[in-house]
Write a structure and sequence with these properties.
The protein contains five helices and eight strands, in the order H-H-E-E-H-E-H-E-E-E-E-H-E. It has about 220 residues and is α+β, with helices and mostly antiparallel strands. The protein folds into three domains: about 45 residues; about 60 residues, Type Iii Antifreeze Protein Isoform Hplc 12, CATH 3.90.1210; about 100 residues. Strands 3, 4, 5, 6, 7 and 8 form a six-stranded antiparallel sheet that branches. The protein is rod-shaped and about 125 Å long.
C-alpha cells in the first residue's frame, strides 16, 4: 500500500513539473536566449584600448605664459590619439614659456613651448631668435604666428636714428612674446621670431648698432 502511494506521489510530482514547465516555457526560452546573447556579446567585446599619460592644460592659457604646476595636469588618453611630440610628465612643461595660446584640456606638445622645437614648427631650418622691438606700441600688435619683416634703423651711439630703415629678416614668423611691456632701460620689447641661421646672424649684427622694428605682412 505504501509503495502504491509513493508511486502515485511521484507521478503527481512529475505531472506538476511538466505543467509548470509547459506553462513557463516561453519565459524560460526568453531567459535562455537573453543569457546566450549576453555570452555572445561578452565574447566579441574588444579589449579596452591601451592608454598613455599626456600633459594637458588645466585652463585656457595665453602665449607667453610661464607654466606652473597649477596650469597643467597629466591625463590618460588612448595611445592612438597621442600627437607627435606630446609631453608625458608635468615636469616637462613646468617652468617653460608657451609659444602659442592653448585651450583648456588641450594636449601640450614640444612645439607649444618656446625653444628650438617651437621655431622648428615654422620650418625645418628655423631657429628661435630673440629681437628687441624699439616701439612697444608696434610690439603690442604682434601675436604668435604673425608674419613680419624685421627692419633696422642705424643709430648714432645707439640712441638716435641716423639712416634709412632696411629689411634685415623678411617674412619671419613670431614664435612668442616673452615680454609684453617695454624694458626699464628703454631697449625695447622682447620678441622671438623663427629665423634661418643666416637671418639670425644678421639680426644679431643689426641689434648692435640699430633700432629694430617690424612691419606686418599678409599671409
Amino acid at each position: 500500500m505504501a509503495a502504491k502511494t509513493s508511486s502515485s506521489g511521484r507521478r503527481r510530482l512529475l505531472r506538476d513539473l511538466r505543467r509548470a514547465v509547459s506553462k513557463h516555457r516561453r519565459l524560460l526560452a526568453a531567459t535562455l536566449a537573453a543569457a546566450a546573447t549576453a555570452l555572445a556579446v561578452g565574447a566579441v567585446r574588444p579589449e579596452p584600448p591601451a592608454t598613455t599619460g599626456v600633459v594637458t592644460a588645466v585652463r585656457d592659457l595665453t602665449a607667453g605664459s610661464h607654466l606652473s604646476t597649477r596650469d597643467v595636469r597629466v591625463r590618460q588618453v588612448p595611445a592612438s590619439a597621442v600627437p607627435d611630440g606630446a609631453l608625458a610628465e608635468a615636469r616637462d612643461a613646468v617652468g617653460h614659456v608657451l609659444a602659442a595660446p592653448v585651450r583648456r584640456g588641450e594636449t601640450l606638445t614640444d612645439v607649444r613651448l618656446v625653444g628650438e622645437s617651437s621655431a622648428r614648427g615654422y620650418g625645418p631650418d628655423r631657429v628661435g631668435t630673440p629681437v628687441r622691438i624699439a616701439d612697444p606700441g608696434v610690439a603690442s600688435l604682434l601675436r604668435p604666428g604673425s608674419l613680419v619683416d624685421v627692419l633696422a634703423v642705424p643709430t648714432a651711439a645707439g640712441l638716435d636714428a641716423t639712416g634709412p630703415a632696411r629689411v634685415i629678416a623678411a617674412r619671419v614668423r613670431v614664435v612668442s612674446l616673452p615680454g609684453t611691456t617695454d624694458t626699464p632701460d628703454g631697449s625695447g620689447t622682447l620678441v622671438v621670431v623663427a629665423a634661418t641661421p643666416e637671418q639670425a646672424a644678421a639680426l644679431t649684427r643689426a641689434a648692435a648698432g640699430s633700432r629694430l622694428s617690424v612691419t606686418l605682412q599678409p599671409g
